[in-house]
Amino acid sequence: MSIKENLKHIQSQLPEQVTLVAVSKTKPVSDLMEAYDAGQRIFGENRIQEMAEKYEEMPKDIQWHAIGHVQRNKVKYMAEFVSLIHGVDSLKLLKEINKQAENYDRTISCLLQIKIAEEDSKFGMDAKDAENILTSDAFSKLKNVKVAGVMGMATFTDDDTQIKKEFDRLQSIFEHLATLNPDLKTISMGMSGDYKIAIESGSTMIRVGSSIFGARD
């Protein structure tokens, strides 16, 4: 199937409250334009310099999401245009995003990355860390960032029961954090292999790459 057909297939399965982020990392601009021409306007990249190059080349009505682990020294390359940063896992990173956003007189939306997987390799903070950030004086002084929700990645496993348990946990953490900060509206969870389970657990944003663009090289 073509990229356009893949997109249409996935979109036909999504409830209207779920936003699709097309994960286009490592894919050429021609592939992204095929998705763009089929109506997709939100693209996720995990290499910030690659995202900045694509931003320069592509139409300006695209929303760019940074979806991978973010190094603080790379924030400046995307501060001018990024719409949402998914992987915020520390107050230090939030402060850097705030500083760079200030340079462009922008407010950048961010998601707090919560560690829900049992694997050691996944980045993220625990629920208490997130709560401490949202209720801190330091965070209240940051005027150029907005925490719009949470993001999490399930364990890479074929065990649907475990995946569902981890997504349900993120949903309940989100509900608690949203009582502390009314800006929290987004739960970004679910990828090509598990987005249907994520939607059952309350996801409002899924990150899908290979099911749209095909396997990565």
Structure write-up:
The structure is a single chain. The chain has 217 residues and is of the alpha/beta class. It contains nine helices and eight strands. The protein has an eight-stranded parallel beta sheet. Helix 7 links the parallel strand 6 and strand 7. The longest helix is centred in the last third of the chain and has 21 residues. It is globular and about 50 Å long. The model has no long low-confidence stretch (mean pLDDT 95).
Q: In terms of topology, how is this protein built?
A:
Layout: H1 3-13, E1 19-23, H2 29-37, E2 42-45, H3 48-57, E3 63-66, E4 84-88, H4 91-103, E5 108-113, H5 127-134, H6 137-140, E6 145-151, H7 160-180, E7 186-188, H8 195-200, E8 205-208, H9 210-213
Parallel strand pairs: 1-2, 1-8, 2-3, 3-4, 4-5, 5-6, 6-7
Q: Give me the count of strands.
A: 8
Structural Rg? 17 Å
- Please report the distance between the alpha carbons of the first and last residues: 18 Å
What is the CATH architecture assignment?
Alpha-Beta Barrel
Average pLDDT metric: 95
H/E series: HEHEHEEHEHHEHEHEH
Q: How many domain modules? A: 1
- What is the general shape? globular
Q: What is the topology, as strand order, of the major beta sheet?
A: 7-6-5-4-3-2-1-8
By CATH reckoning, the class would read Alpha Beta
The CATH topology annotation reads as TIM Barrel
Q: How much β-strand is present in the residues?
A: 15-25%
Q: Main β-sheet: number of strands, strand sense, barrel status? A: 8 strands, parallel
The CATH superfamily title? Alanine racemase
**Poorly predicted ranges (pLDDT <50, ≥5 residues)?**
none
* Structure annotation, total helices: 9
Secondary structure category: alpha/beta
Overall helicity? 25-40%
